[in-house]
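Lab meeting notes turned into a lecture example. A postdoc, R.K., suggested we walk through two folding results consecutively so the class can see how the record format repeats. The first protein's sequence and structure tokens come next.
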Amino acid sequence: MKKIINPILPGFNPDPSICRVGDDYYIATSTFEWFPGVQVHHSKDLIHWKLVAHPLDRRSQLDMNGCASSCGIWAPCLSYAEGQFWLIYTNMRSVTGPWLSTPNYLVTAPSIEGPWSEPVYMNASGFDPSLFHDDDGRKWFVNMLFDGSGRRHCFAGIVLQEYDHAQKKLVGPIKNIWGGTPLKVTEGPHLYKREGWYYLMCAEGGTDWTHAESIARSRNIAGPYESNPANPILTSYNKTHLPLHRAGHASLVETQTGEWYMPHLCGRPVENPGASRSLPFYDRNKCIMGRETAIQKIVWGDDGWPRLAWGGNDPRLEVDAPNLPERPWPAEPIREDFDGPAWSIHFQTLREPADESWISLTERPGWLRLRGRHWLSSFFDQSLLVRRVQAFDCRATTCMEFEPTNIQQMAGLVAYYNYSDFLYLRGTANDDGKKSLGIIVSDQKRYRELSEYDVPVDGIKRIYLRAQINAPWLQFSWSKDGGNWTDIGPKMNCTNLSDEISGTGSRFTGAFLGICCQDMSGQFIEADFDWFEYGEVES
């Protein structure tokens, strides 16, 4: 029996919404503050997946300038009807209480590659929106309702309203159709219809260790909805022996052969070596790849409720694959040479689209040029190009030419989580104007320059930089020739590049590796990068 090995999308942020079009499957996942917005993976067998599209690729569709870390795109919903794709998304603007800023939008496209339309504004009463296409041609919009008044739980239920595409707006009454279960934090709604029943599937418990997935049903789309007596149908909470944790936030799909599967959010923790062994499991383990996407097999019981194929509600690492021919994709290249008109689809920028004024493939052909802008803790104007960490044992390498003139100018290789947590191997100029290579650590907003490990590199035009992660450790190294490598600095605990760090705002994204350039003097100095490599390595 063929197996699906979870997670199916390692290191790719979840809130997975799955959509089948004939023999093709597409999963849309969250991108938060990273641009372009929304990631879409494609598969023909539910085993092998390939990143194929970022639908929100211009500022008119997605303006995130100044948004906080882990804001931006939350929980997109992808569907297909009437010969086109429909994508619903939240552009989360603020998570500081008591009220949130949660505008929701719709874009459409004739194919997954686009072109994607300009956005249609829907509402802003809560996040995690979803669009359901009923078999009578009507369309229904659902989202969680947020209440910041303090008079009840702030996750105040799931609301439903009809969408009129001819008028491009929501119409008719708004109805709160389900308040969830005692797990609370009811969010991520998706509607389905099967054998005359409307099924409303929602995430609950919060997207941390307590995460879960529950389901309710009704004969009428507007309710009342009855809860499945076996809820939650999926959870990892208090099951520390499982390899997949934080399970929930799911969607459903039926294959062309009549089998059912459920992609869902999950996380794979590693133990923080700096934490005491006497601490509980949930206090000493961290997920440096953030929230990932796994998939489970579903069957429908005689009572009309969906359940995991093996019973219970534990997510499994290995799942029976559907009765479909395997369709693997060619292996992804590990090197980006920056020789073409565009870089790999795996790269993203922070909060804003790439612009020739600060990032260019044409100013020096065969090289990527970054012009220095703000410091890494700024919510504006970051000259940063990164890709996701997708394995516990991986390595990023680059070749840089950079001639700083003062200590305000820096460029190099960064392991980045957000404004408060990063590890940075950077070149700069000392007070005497001579170039040096050194490490900067930001750990929960605590800034340190490890100056005792600085290496003089004045007169060396081309410098090779490397970051190797063997979780939970990260080691930087450098080279003059790209062949003989020397470690720089100590082996560092990188579990601060994870979601489970408190005191620095919302944290949902997982870790990134990439290249960057800063110039706090405002002279916009350039750093040139010949290539960038990312690949898995042996532990």
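The second example is placed directly after the first for contrast:
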Amino acid sequence: MTEAPSQNSFLKIQTPDSDWYKRRIIGLFCFVLPGFTFLLLRLFYLQIIDGENFRRLSENNCIRLQSIDPPRGLIFDRNGQLLVDNRPSYDLSIVVKDARPLEGTLQHLSQYTRIPLELLREGIDKSLNQPSFKPVLLKQDIGRDVLAALEVKRFDLPGIVVDVRLRRLYVKSLSAAHILGYVGEISADELKSVKYSGYKRGELIGKSGVEKSFDNYLRGERGGRQIEVNVTGQLVRVLKTVDAVPGNNIYLSFDQRIQKKAEDLLLGVIGSAVAMDPTTGFILAMASSPSYDPNMFVDGFSYDQWESLVKNPSHPLQNKAIQAEYPPASTYKIITAMAGLEEGVIDEKTTLFCPGGYKFADREYRCWKKGGHGTIAIGRAIAESCDVFFYQVGLRLGVDRLATYAKAAGLGALTGIQLEQESGGLIPTSVWKKRRLGVAWQGGETLSVSIGQGYNLATPLQLATMISSIANGGTRVLPLIVMKIQNASGETIMEYQPQIKGYLPVSTKNLDIIKKGLWEVVNGKSGTARIAHIDGIDVSGKTGTAQVFSRKADSENEARRAQHLKSHAWFVAYAPSENPKIAVSVLVEHGEHGGSAAGPIASELIREYFTEKAK
């Protein structure tokens, strides 16, 4: 029989387990003790050593987040001349939560800034739905004198905040305004669009020109900072800052000196001038007259000033180079000549008779030369711009064949320039008229279209690209206004290269016939633009006189017409005639005659270009 263990032997058996528990308790105590020690020390630091600081934060101060606007990218001309800069602006805001008592603070603010109390109240009333801890903008760009006054009286103005923001500065004021464009606050509708996803209320965006088309490159990336403010809303210290990323800088293709020359030549007239490199497509100048000062949109203007801009019959806000559409007039005869030669309805030796008019159906279509040009071939017809010759060529071709060549030259469609809001013009066809107006095309309409009248519409830029295609031997290039984009460190992130858009459907032989006629326009004895001749610079071109109403009265009455009924004046040109470096398109509204009104402007612009190149 097995003997039961005694009490002493039982205790001896339990001893190893007791030691194990004892070791666990000691280990746990060693782990917990440092933790409690750390917590006690931290509590001592927070309550005793730094207690005053945290007491101040909990009782009077609070932490706020401030947005930091990025510097918008700069804009230069092709030579690095600064055109658009940023300048500091001191913007006055109020944090309603901190401005206690509100009415007393507003009265003091009105006294120190001389801003009417009613305007200050209106600013607050407009933001009633906004959280009281968010700043309410009262006035932008208060100036250094007002800023100094506010700094002296800052303790009387709880909740008043002055932020330094960068505002756009258009260095050359009126110059190149239509190219550069302007900036403005993003609208409610724009905030809803996909294009502006990620943008916030109150942000400034490009509204027109390069500022709009390249807004994504120019705007930069917003930064922010965490700040501590006291009970009156005044800054105590900056806790953390995330720097804003500056926008990219843009280099445009035009030369500011040539641009200014074009603008000076257009002073006092309504119109446009475009100069471009015919081989690369880079725009050398693009002027629209009258102009406007984009700084007005930055600094703000009165209701009367705005009305004077938008209701001005001269449309100063319109970029006439790419948005205004006019009948191309006799410049279109280049298209008619090209189509006639290529389709074989005429050749270099074909002669047609011009008695001063052409009778078709029951109507006589006049030539600009009352006595007529007599028997005439293509070269002289281009040089002297004989309407009757081109009436007959156009009639043999028909509107649809004319349209094919016009469209191949880039007319009737957007050029693709790097600017928004471009107009496409119009090149009519028989199908277009039937679909648009519901009636068939008439033969008499072909006569009008063949000399650039009728339904034809073109922009100055379109005609600049057309004459460039003639000048460079038949290649249609994309017009470019931006050459390159660099980041704030000077690294080039994008560089635009010439692009071919298409080719003219014309043989070298027939193109030479047309170019010979264009040379005669400026240099021949009876050319319509002899006034554009430049000694030492071989210029070729084509004049145009675009009617604004049906020409039924004698030309003798033209001088007595109201100004707004007078014809528009065109001139397109390139130089030198061999290996051209510049192509120009000039339109003067109601200038009457292309040779006398537009020709001298183009001539002086070409002269300026080669004067600059010689330096």
